[in-house]
């Protein structure tokens, strides 16, 4: 769905994804993978609702819920973007079956996020509109929301056929720009502690780095390890630049916090761990992938 790098191939007369329950595969059979991911997408929302009901979000439950839904929307968006790389890394082609579902899941959290904002403004739509026009962080959030909604609506097989694969791919590649808008919105909304948007930005950079490695056919474990280090360093620099700009603390001191064993785990370290964890997965993926010679033999047999 959202942000496909290649449009799904839709054959004439095939059962389309939208004409059956989300937990079925294209042949109409129950898919454990799709059912599992579908159920998992509800967990953050149900957990947040439970916390609200228990009073854990007091004294400002709506504001807290705004934070939670925004943060989860961003995480799920990043996850949907990670599906194509993961599919290559672990050599699991069927992962592609859940990409659309995960993208739609992120959109659902965003719609709730916007709904909560409207509720927080006492349903005064005139005020909502003027705030969106006047406040930069809301303007870019709104543009991102409209863009992601457009990608969600056009994510179906029917739209792929209607638009043609080339145009459809072009439209869905705008997700990368929309995500930058989302990240800027999250940074500006985070006020004091920007650890989460810094982490999200680091993971986003790692995803962009993977795209450029893929284009150069550098999909092995070693380039991946290099990407982990590069993305982690970039994350450190972004964090240092943000806090130095905001607080005037020397950026070298902020950078040094990443190497202080007494400090809690920093976003750059998480980025390093997450991307490095893909290295053994890549080794497994390479073993699972059929050897090129075998494929050639099979094709010529
Ligand atoms: C019309 C669109 C949007 C509106 C009106 C809106 C509004 C808000 C508001 C008011 C907050 C802060 C709550 C507070 O502290 O008082 C917030 C936080 C947040 N929003 Fe949005 N938002 C919009 C779109 C988006 C989009 C497209 C994303 C992308 C995923 C997003 C992600 C976030 C995140 C991650 C936070 C939490 C930041 C943090 O606390 O770490 N929002 N939003």
Give an account of the 3D structure.
There is one protein chain. It contains 14 helices and no strands. With 301 residues, the protein is an all-alpha fold. It folds into 2 domains: 1-189, no CATH class; 193-301, no CATH class. The longest helix has 29 residues, at 61-89. The model is unreliable at 1-5 (pLDDT under 50).
What summary fits the major beta sheet? none
Q: Ligands in the structure?
A: protoporphyrin IX containing FE
In terms of DSSP E residues, the strand content is under 5%
What does the overall shape look like? globular
Structural class: mainly alpha
Write down how many β-strands occur, each being a DSSP E stretch of 2 or more residues.
0
Element pattern in H and E: HHHHHHHHHHHHHH
Number of folding domains? 2
Helix content: over 70%
pLDDT averaged over residues:
89
Radius of gyration: 21 Å
Q: Compute the separation of the termini in Å.
A: 36 Å
Can you tell me the residue ranges where pLDDT is under 50 for at least 5 consecutive residues? 1-5
Q: How many H/I helical runs?
A: 14
